[in-house]
Amino acid sequence: MSGKPRLTYCNGRGRMEPVRWLLAAAGVEFEENFLETREQYEKLIKDGVLMFQQVPLVEIDGMKMVQTRAILSYIAGKYNLYGKDLKERALIDMYVEGITDLMQMILMFPFSPPEAKEKNLDSIKERATNRYFPVFEKVLKQHGQDFLVGNKFSWADVQLIEAILAVEEKIPAVLSGFPQLQAFKIRMSNMPTIKKFLQPGSPRKPPPDECYVETVLKIFKK
């Protein structure tokens, strides 16, 4: 395959949204194939397209890539968003893994039962403000640079701005005690490729609604 990367997933955020963010931040256009039925998903499995019978699936550079982390690290490396050496890459990996832990809570939130939503929202706020955001606030304050690692735009910056905006959708004042992250958010949001991705009509997906949840459950629940 040549040309634009092709992304196969549901028409929603889920585990594909970080991939969309990273490609967009790198200035890479991509095509999307949306799963809408269980049958479409089963056909991919039957055809041997999905290595572990799971999506996201990204077709890029002649490969059919699965596993979100592998996809993201390939894109980061290909587009020079993965640090200049092993030490910088290790830092980026640590930051990305931490952000991913927070994003996992947000990813699962729409699927929680109504009676658990308030408790889960409190958990997201507690983790964001006490465990994850303080780390990045401290990093930015200590080195005084615009970006998290090596004073150069990287995968870690993309993941962090995605997470900040996702948490703010649920807890608008979450950055009130984090001036460095407030400034970081403004810087990242004004980078040309990210600014474009944040505009209406971009491939960025809206917050999950009930229709999205129903579609996901219909496709993936046995």
Layout of helices and strands:
Elements (H helix, E strand, L loop, with lengths): L5 E5 L6 H9 L5 E5 L2 H9 L10 E4 L2 E4 L1 H11 L7 H23 L5 H30 L11 H16 L8 H11 L2 H6 L12 H11 L2
Parallel strand pairs: 1-2
Antiparallel strand pairs: 1-3, 3-4
Helix pairs in contact: 1-3, 1-6, 4-5, 4-6, 5-7, 6-7
Descriptors:
single chain; 222 residues; alpha+beta; 4-stranded mixed β-sheet; 9 helices; 57% helix
Indicate the low-confidence ranges by residue numbers: none
* CA-atom Rg in angstroms: 18 Å
Query: What proportion strand?
Result: 5-15%
The number of E-state strands comes to 4
Give a quick precis of the structure.
The protein has helices at residues 17-25, 38-46, 68-78, 86-108, 114-143, 155-170, 179-189, 192-197, 210-220, and strands at 6-10, 31-35, 57-60, 63-66. The chain is an alpha+beta fold.
Describe this structure in words.
It is a single chain. By secondary structure, the chain is α+β, with helices and mostly antiparallel strands. It is built from 9 helices and 4 strands. It has helices spanning 17-25, 38-46, 68-78, 86-108, 114-143, 155-170, 179-189, 192-197, 210-220; strands at residues 6-10, 31-35, 57-60, 63-66. A 4-stranded mixed sheet has the order 2-1-3-4. The chain is globular, with a radius of gyration of 18 Å. The protein starts with 5 loop residues before the first strand and ends with a helix.
